[in-house]
């Protein structure tokens, strides 16, 4: 059944609709007014333990304490064939509730906890204890977030569970042979790593190298989380989940989706194209292509960091026929991205030389910082932001003073610019006037272009800067 994914994004909310054969089947909405916490990892501090209710309240740095039930402490499934799917909101949906507690405490001879629990929650955690927890349910009304110590790190094809030891395969993969193949690959990888895995539907048909690559990435991500948690004091945010749009692409863009439509220039995808340019090599075309791709890796990573590119990134390397050549380029790209402080998830390199990756933005991009939506063309282009224009204007005033050698200047600028100077940068303007001993008059003109300004010497001629 063919699917379509439609994403609408504005300053108020992001909406995602899933259509099957043209009929609306699912809809997801995420509002932007409230900070999203679902899937985030926090280093929390236990503030209260209530054994009669088998719950604890944990301070994770939000307005209200989070709620931790004994059932949300470390689990290990008793059923190896347990399966799990995860929707775009990060909710885990288990096929069977067959989990048993996997805790270090020794169970009592008789059940102390009621409802089959061999422990009281006070046997396991205590007040002021610090815990690494993940938000499983957003705060609702007067209730705080519900958290769990059963950490899950979802990838596109695999969910990594560092506190478990089981391997599960999605039942949506109907072929028993394929399920066994994927489970055996996971067992081979698991032999030298801790944790368990849920193999998702998107893993169907993956090669061993593709499958292994994502698992290795998730394990590396978990190690980084652990190191970050050690450096932070409770309560604090340790790791933030992907944005709503990126989660949609990660979790829902499967082989049966024929198109993904987005009505905004959110960072739907960044495409980087590699070509040989003037690099023609000598006589061996395969080695020439390999050399060009290897050389391009460093520049690709540099540009990603320099521009702070985020969201989905596809790098289109020059086609390489040799499998060994593709592996060399992919390995070098992985090594280069280890220096990147932003969180990245790099997938396999295809036969056509395409590498897909996601990258979490760490700060506003340069274009966002320096520019804003143009009020003159209804958002179809960009102009310099008011902050940038004001900075340029202050510099121009200094240049005009030096050029004219006159202490009396009259400046005319767009009314938004003048208003911003008076409300946000009055101190900067006052310092400049004091430094240059200026007699400065600032006038507003609503008809003047946002980026334009005019400088006059006193009440006389207009000054044009060199």
Automatic annotation (TrEMBL):
A GO biological process of this protein is: rRNA processing
**What is one term from the GO cellular component aspect held by the record?**
cytoplasm
Q: Which cofactor does it need?
A: Mg(2+)
Q: Which UniProt keywords apply?
A: Cytoplasm, Hydrolase, Magnesium, Metal-binding, Nuclease, RNA-binding
Where does the RNA-binding protein AU-1/Ribonuclease E/G domain start and stop, copy by copy?
265-362
Q: Which residues form the RNase E/G thioredoxin-like domain?
A: 374-455
Q: Which Pfam families match?
A: RNase_E_G (PF10150), RNase_E_G_Thio (PF20833)
Which terms in the Gene Ontology molecular function aspect does this entry carry? Answer: hydrolase activity; metal ion binding; RNA binding; RNA nuclease activity
Q: Which protein family is named in the record? A: Belongs to the RNase E/G family.
Q: What does this protein do?
A: Involved in intercistronic processing of primary transcripts from chloroplast operons. The endonucleolytic activity of the enzyme depends on the number of phosphates at the 5' end, is inhibited by structured RNA, and preferentially cleaves A/U-rich sequences.
| Name of the protein this chain belongs to | Ribonuclease G
**Organism per entry:** Geodia barretti (Barrett's horny sponge)
